[in-house]
Amino acid sequence: MLDRLLSTLPYPDNSEYAAENPLWRRTPFTQVRHRMDLLYGKAFSLANLSPELLADIDDFFGPLSTETIAQSIGFARHQRICDQHGQPYEFDAHLAACWQAPTFWVHGEQNGIFEASSVALAHALFDRCGIGQRLSSQIFPGLGHQDSLIGRDCGKVLQAIGRFLGEP
Q1: Distance between CA 109 and CA 102 in Å, rounded?
Q2: What pTM value is reported for the model?
Q3: Average model confidence (pLDDT) for the chain?
């Protein structure tokens, strides 16, 4: 029943509906997709994923744990990053002391889970804590949250990550 209800989730692009509802073919990936989208927001665009990946999508994401759900509920309730128990995490107090490694933030412009403005907010946080030089980022047009790493166009994202890792 839940999956039938979730099949009514609106997607802004009509091609998404057509991809989920082809004639004469089953689309079992829709259950995993709709459950993820209900909990987190739009996780990926179907047009960016190959049919082979969609056929095995549940192998990528597997069953959800209660800790993951508690953390997601905490994000929504507190409107900020939370620990595994859903309690707000005090970044400012620990960030400068604990965040020693250079970090590269990869963000899909069409990310339905985190807004693109999150990148600027992260830079402001790192600057406020005196470690702004440790964070670099890149926003990728046309990509969402998961499809930026597992979609058809993930090569450009992986190349950018490779360039970042190749730097001293």
Answers
A1: 22
A2: 0.67
A3: 82
